[in-house]
Automatic annotation (TrEMBL):
It comes from Pedobacter agri. It is found in: Periplasm. One of its GO terms (cellular component) is periplasmic space. Gene3D superfamilies: Periplasmic binding protein-like II. This is Extracellular solute-binding protein. InterPro entries: Bact_solute-bd_prot1, SBP. Belongs to the bacterial solute-binding protein 1 family. Pfam families: SBP_bac_1 (PF01547). It comes from the Bacteria. Its main location: periplasm.
Length: 386
């Protein structure tokens, strides 16, 4: 009689984060009856902040955010998946990466998680509200400001999302952030971006500064007050019939220069295995199952997941069920900026957003804001986190 193998996983608390893992675990246990996989959940903020080293002490499987890759490489709290997955399988995953999703988990010559979920900030709208008011989707920043003047615009304003949107505006204005060891961006560009961002922020409801993307989409679907969000991490769940009171449509973003759409900051999630896991081969077999193109395009997506495999993004049935979410937003994914992943990057990510958010809400001196960010950035380069 085969021994029973029990694996525990930790993911994040949203239909997109939990349900596909529960569904894939159930199906996997039907295929391998001696294997039981149970999933627990944590909040979106804990997902961004909580050390994976601590989680790896308690769980066999972890759904993680790619900025942890450098930390993982340093601490070895999770295992390199290239030791357990075949070269052919990984070649297919790399070939079918949505934007730089595969690369985002590759650090120090190893793959630390499999990109099972792909996301970046994209635009979202309520077509019914825009039509009712005789309005069109904005194309330029000027269009966006005009729509915001009507009180119809929102964006996620908690610190982490504010920082990601700051990155977006920098990338889209000609400079990728964090490209040297001394400053986040040049002073001249930083001042320009902060002023632009503050102008938009001054026109939105202050309630948005306490909202993450999920809460923005909930506000857009529960009420009829917000018709457009210019940038927030996309959630295909809200584009599916029956998920919320109203269906959202998702789009590529506006252009700052009339030629190129905004370039946002890559998100998504990866499936990792703890170095404390005692059944590494079985855990790897489950990771392989979840990330397979067949599972991604069917079981994973149909249970609320947002796939990380390109074949699912280009699948006609997947798009039919989601108002073409994946077709419409794929260009944004393909050009998305890959944020820093060095060992101390999480310290900067955890603190710099507070500085930008305070400026957006209360105003202030842009040079002082940039100096504070640069000080945090330089400190993060010297940290040895545990």
């Amino acid at each position: 009689m085969e021994k029973t193998i029990n694996l525990k996983g930790i993911t994040w608390n949203h239909s997109r984060g939990l349900l596909p893992m529960v569904a894939t675990a159930q199906r996997f246990s039907e295929l391998y009856p001696n294997v039981n996989i149970t999933w627990e959940k944590r909040s979106l903020q804990q997902f961004a902040d909580f050390s994976i080293q601590e989680l790896a002490e308690r769980f066999d499987l972890l759904v993680i955010d790619h900025p942890w890759a450098g930390f993982a490489a340093k601490t070895k709290s999770i295992v390199p998946l290239d030791f357990y997955l075949s070269d052919d399988y990984l070649a297919d995953q790399e070939r079918n990466s949505v934007g730089q999703s595969y690369e985002s988990y590759f650090y120090d010559e190893h793959l630390w998680a499999l990109p099972i979920d792909a996301a970046t900030p994209v635009a979202a709208s309520r077509p019914d509200l825009l039509a009712e008011k005789g309005l069109e989707l904005p194309k330029s920043f000027e269009d966006l400001l005009a729509l915001a003047d009507k009180g119809l615009v929102a964006f996620a304003g908690i610190p982490i999302d504010v920082l990601m949107n700051f990155y977006t505006l920098c990338c889209s204005s000609g400079e990728d952030p964090c490209q040297n060891d001394e400053e986040v961006v040049s002073q001249s560009l930083g001042i320009k971006v902060l002023k632009m961002y503050r102008e938009l922020a001054s026109k939105i409801d202050k309630a948005n500064f306490d909202r993450n993307p999920i809460q923005v989409y909930e506000a857009m679907t529960k009420t009829d007050e917000i018709a457009y969000c210019p940038f927030a991490y996309g959630y295909s769940n809200y584009s599916r019939n029956g998920y919320a009171r109203k269906v959202l449509h998702f789009h590529d973003m506006i252009s700052l220069d009339g030629k190129n759409n905004l370039r946002s900051t890559l998100g998504g999630t990866g499936l990792a295995i703890s170095s404390k896991c005692e059944e590494l081969d079985v855990a790897a077999k489950y990771v392989e199952f979840v990330g397979s193109p067949a599972c991604q395009s069917t079981l994973f997506f149909e249970n609320g997941g947002q796939p990380g495999h390109l074949t699912a993004w280009k699948n006609d049935e997947v798009n039919r069920q989601s108002q073409n979410y994946f077709y419409n937003t794929l260009p944004a994914l393909q050009r998305a900026f890959l944020r820093p992943r060095y060992h101390g990057s999480m310290y900067f990510q955890d603190h710099a957003g507070d500085v930008v958010r305070d400026y957006l809400m209360n105003g202030g001196d842009e040079i002082q804001v940039l100096n504070q960010m640069n000080e945090l950035y330089r400190k993060s380069k010297t940290l040895v986190l545990s």
